[in-house]
Specification:
The complex is a heterodimer of chains A (386) and B (167). Chain A has 386 residues and is mainly alpha-helical. Chain A is built from 16 helices and no strands. Chain B contains four helices and ten strands; from the N terminus they run βββββαββααβββα. Classes of the chains: A mainly alpha (386), B alpha+beta (167). Chain A binds chain B through residues 74-75, 79-80, 82-83, 128, 132, 139-147, 150-151, 153-154, 251, 254-255, 258, 316-317, 319-320, 323, 377, 381, 384-385, and chain B through 12-17, 20, 22, 30, 32, 34, 37-39, 42, 44, 46-47, 49-54, 56-57.
Chain lengths: 386, 167
């Protein structure tokens, strides 16, 4: 049994490596492929594996926490606030345009308010991982629309911190009073940690960092898990705690944290996507396919509009607006983290298959839209030159 | 000739990435640099027919960036001292190149007697993109070496004169 376990784990990792390479070749995101792999080897899939659930479950949880932690590390609190200030109009539009369709679809399907709230989150949040990677790979950081896209992503990440805390309270279903109480607690906690992170950022960075990589690795991981675990104890999602403590790590320390924890995050994040796929009941997929694709189409368009407006507000012209629009379309890692909250709480059996289909469609469509836009850009410039 | 146009540099924070500084040239291209949080610097230029689009960009290490700044000075020996970096009151840092034909090409650092004659210290030499810190008086120069020198503004100007003297 144990021998089989190692064999299966190794085979899954090899398959993931192949998929990552395949995605890289076409400059697409590997996330949809990881999800599909999870679907295939899940108990409802074509090739069910014996892999110990507990083991993957732990890996997946670490993956979600590390994704959020390193997202926080990328930003400083000041950047978050400055970004939010510069693009709050686009940010608000983004929330209204992209949260509403998911929420409405959930309610339309007769789900509970909590499940519909989660689906709203799934459709709201763009994949900052996919967008930032595309911008880096295409050399678009110097583009006029770059700050517009990044500011929208920053606001989404900030909103997500509060949203995840709320969602956790919602899913626990402690009643309306309990939810309201958790809400106040969550907002206070997020505010308090942000203020602390802003003030004591330098000290925190200094305490964790020593010249020894080994000690930094263990220290960082320990700190992240303690904060994440403590957040969970006070009924705020562990992911929120990880994100907030990530904000407190800045400067040189942030660079080092990325270097050291980056590869570990990649490993466990892959485990997270596979694990999520594992839990999806494939037999429930056909029933939700039509609403899922309809929803994907709608929130693909609403996100396009968001990017268009955001870039226009930053002074981009037509082509720049189109690039920003396409960059934001992809949904990915954070949508899955939100959907996982619902699966974990066992609140709506249709949520996981529907969210998976939406994310699969948009994580593939987003990068493709960007590549199409780039090709059209080129063709238009060629035509103008003649 | 038109009078030189003032250059308006735009500062744009890129959340999660770094800081972007750019300006639009007289010929209608946007040129600038991005300073990523993780160090180094990215140089970019906009497309000819879409000011909003980056046509090409290149990532430079700190030494490469310093070298480029040096090249922009035209020659190290120009008397433009504006690119000197004043480290402390009265003390500045400059990059001095040993060019082909310099009297000190293939000669030792000690032979220049820079410190005695100008009060300037050579704290490092950049050769082939790598920095060699604290060169000894026995260090032999070769064509293309860039000396990182510290001294007074006058001392550095004098050192530049000495290094290029007759040619």
């Amino acid at each position: 049994m144990r021998g089989l376990f190692l064999l299966e784990l190794g085979a899954v990792l090899l398959a993931l490596a192949l998929l990552a390479r395949l995605a890289g070749r076409f400059s697409l995101s590997p996330i949809p492929l990881y999800l599909v792999l999870g679907l295939l080897v899940g108990e409802h899939g074509l090739l069910p594996l014996e892999l110990s659930r507990e083991f993957i479950d732990l890996g997946a949880e670490l993956g979600a926490i590390l994704l959020l932690f390193l997202l926080g590390v990328e930003y400083s609190v000041d950047e978050l606030i400055a970004g939010a200030r510069r693009a709050y109009v686009s940010g608000t539009l983004d929330l209204v345009l992209n949260f509403t369709p998911g929420l409405a679809m959930g309610l339309l399907l007769g789900w509970s308010a909590a499940a519909a709230f989660l689906l709203g989150g799934v459709t709201y949040i763009s994949s900052s991982g996919i967008a930032a990677k595309l911008m880096r790979d295409l050399g678009w950081m110097g583009n006029r629309e770059a700050p517009a896209v990044l500011s929208v992503l920053v606001i989404e990440d900030l909103v997500m911190a509060v949203y995840l805390a709320l969602a956790a309270a919602f899913v626990l279903g402690t009643g309306l009073g309990g939810a309201a109480w958790s809400l106040i607690g969550a907002v206070l906690l997020v505010g308090a940690v942000l203020a602390m992170a802003s003030r004591y950022s330098a000290q925190i960075s200094r305490v964790v960092f020593t010249p020894s990589d080994e000690s930094v690795l263990l220290g960082l991981l320990g700190m992240v898990l303690v904060v994440a675990g403590a957040s969970e104890q006070v009924r705020v999602s562990a992911a929120v705690g990880a994100f907030l403590i990530g904000l407190a790590v800045s400067g040189q320390a942030a660079h080092k944290a990325e270097q050291i924890l980056g590869p570990i995050r990649d490993l466990f994040a892959a485990a997270f996507f596979v694990f999520f796929g594992l839990q999806v009941d494939l037999s429930a997929m056909p029933a939700v396919l039509v609403p899922a694709l309809g929803l994907a189409l709608v929130v693909g368009l609403t996100k396009w509009l968001t990017g268009w407006v955001a870039a226009a507000r930053f002074g981009s012209r037509r082509r720049g607006r189109r690039r920003a629009a396409a960059l934001l379309v992809a949904r990915g890692e954070f949508s899955i983290i939100i959907a996982e909250l619902g699966v974990d709480g066992g609140i709506e059996p249709q949520l996981a298959p529907l969210a998976t289909a939406v994310v699969l469609a948009l994580a593939m469509l987003g990068p493709i839209a960007v590549l199409v836009v780039r090709t059209r850009d080129r063709a238009e410039r060629e035509a103008a030159r003649r | 000739m038109s009078s030189p146009r003032e250059v308006r540099v735009e500062r744009t924070p890129l959340p999660g990435v770094g800081l972007r500084l750019d300006f639009i040239t007289e010929t209608g291209r946007r040129v600038g640099v991005i300073h990523p949080q993780r160090g180094g610097v990215e140089l970019f230029i906009s497309s000819e027919d879409d000011l909003d689009l980056t046509m090409d960009s290149v990532t430079l290490t700190a030494v490469e960036a310093a070298t480029l700044i040096e090249l922009f000075g035209g020659s190290v020996f120009s008397h433009e001292l504006s690119h000197l970096q004043e480290a402390a009151a009265g003390i500045a840092v400059d990059w001095l190149t040993i060019e082909a034909g310099s009297p000190f090409e293939d000669r030792r650092l000690g032979d220049t007697q820079l410190r005695a004659r100008t009060g300037v210290s050579v704290v490092a030499v950049i050769r082939d993109g790598a920095a060699i810190p604290s060169p000894t008086p026995g260090f032999v120069f070769t064509d293309g070496d860039v000396l990182v020198a510290v001294g007074t503004v006058e001392g550095l100007a004098a050192a530049g004169e000495i290094l290029r003297a007759e040619g």
